[in-house]
Amino acid sequence: MRVIICGAGEVGYNIAAYLARDENDITLIDTNAEIVAQANHDLDVRAVLGHASTPEVLSAAGAAEADMIIAVTSSDEVNMIACQVAHSLFNVPKKIARIRASGYLDPIWANLFSRAHMPIDVIISPEQEIALSILKRLSVPGTTNIISLAGEKLHLCAVICEEDCPIVNTPLRQLTALFPDARINIMAINRGGVLTIPDPDDQMLIGDEVFFVVDTDQLDRALEGFGHEEKTARSIVIMGGGNIGFALACCIQEKFPHVNLKLIEQNHDRALELSEKLEDVVVLCGDGLDHTLLEEADMKATETLIAVTDDDEANILGSLLARQYGCDQTVTLLNKNTYNALQSSLGLGAIVSPRAITASKILHYVRRGRIKAVHNIAYGGAEVIEAELSESSDVINKPLKDIPFTQDVHVGAIVREDNEVLMPHPDLELKAGDHVIVIALQGAIRKVEKMFSIQVDLFS
């Protein structure tokens, strides 16, 4: 597959690295000479210096032979023009663009991106995706991450094992005896920033972030088993009134209309604008780390703080202050990976990574054959892959115990064509048509493709 990626920021660079691992022909375009040089040195890609929206640069990048263009520069307008030029001059089949400004995304202007006007096949709005991701975590309190799988028949959840977790220090093999009818499978453990796939003799420890897949019907029971029985918040404070904070406030008002919602924004003009746009939301102007303002926001009575400013350090400090005031939950937006290993020791609760969310959403549309979805977890430390087994797969009609899985690949669950949810066990045989959930540590996705004989069929 020949792919042109416009923009070598954190999202573009990581998508290029991901796709290059699978032996795709990747060309990366950016205006920063240092980043272009770094990409040429560190990645198995061809990096081109120039403006991604110009025909000359796109031509030099091989647009005439490209199967797809992914435009993720920092400019919405450059992303749109790059897709338009790729379509009009080079007939690129698939065009994906990241667009941030809400003005372009208003449903009344939806015709703008039709094939007859500005033909973009997939539009990714990071602010909307981040808001929806946070909203899902609010809907299932106690989780640090939650992802719907297999048409919502399953969920991948992440939780922190706290001191009241009843199943810490218990070998995983004993969990089956303790919960014989539970359809849950421990997929990975993040301990001190190191992600591993556990074996049956491993134990979960206090402070671990545990990733597990569970039948949706048993989601509440699974959370109770980990000691997480938090109730949906009735009082929420959002710290940061940028595009993400505004989108989130709108989503919360729609999803949870009875929630007491406050928003803190430091910029006076922006705070005034938000107060006019958001009905029934108390907008406070000031520093979200100021004790006087936190008292005014009645932080002691607040159940959840969501820190989504554009400053990682402010978000961390805001969440820690909220904990001191007695907040049950915090959701912290972090753009950098610097603080990942400190998540459990700092007690930050749920952490949201814009880069990981945007990259996962884009990769969802870069499908490879029978791979139906790819979800990045643990800041890119692993991928959770949803794949459908074909008749040509070498693993069908074989019990799992006879399939040579390596330590960095693990089957989490299987959904049969009749919607039956199955948890893996040694004697279970895989069948053609099975929808298989697999976790692969970083760099192991090619092993999954090879193992399951997944044939490449672009844009399926």
Summary keywords:
single chain, 460 residues, alpha/beta, Rossmann fold, Alpha-Beta Plaits, 6-stranded parallel beta sheet, disordered C terminus
Structural description of this entry:
With 460 residues, this protein is α/β, with parallel strands linked by helices. The chain has 3 domains: 123 residues, 3-Layer(aba) Sandwich (Rossmann fold), CATH 3.40.50.720; 122 residues, NAD(P)-binding Rossmann-like Domain (Rossmann fold, 3-Layer(aba) Sandwich); 89 residues, Alpha-Beta Plaits (2-Layer Sandwich), CATH 3.30.70. The protein is 31% helix and 25% strand. The protein contains 15 helices and 22 strands. The strands form 4 sheets. A 6-stranded parallel β-sheet has the order 3-2-1-4-5-6, with helices on both faces. Strand 12, helix 9 and strand 13 form a beta-alpha-beta unit. Helix 1 crosses helix 14 and helix 6 packs across helix 14. It is globular, with a radius of gyration of 23 Å. 45% of the residues are buried.
Helices and strands, with pairings:
Elements: E1 2-6, H1 10-21, E2 25-30, H2 33-42, E3 46-49, H3 55-60, E4 68-71, H4 76-90, E5 94-98, H5 102-105, E6 122-124, H6 126-139, E7 145-149, E8 154-160, H7 172-178, E9 184-191, E10 194-196, E11 209-215, H8 219-225, E12 235-239, H9 243-255, E13 260-265, H10 268-277, E14 282-285, H11 291-296, E15 304-307, H12 312-325, E16 329-333, H13 343-346, E17 350-352, H14 354-365, E18 371-377, E19 382-388, E20 409-415, E21 421-422, E22 435-441, H15 445-451
Parallel strand pairs: 1-2, 1-4, 2-3, 4-5, 5-6, 12-13, 12-15, 13-14, 15-16, 16-17
Antiparallel strand pairs: 7-8, 8-11, 9-10, 9-11, 18-19, 19-22, 20-21, 20-22
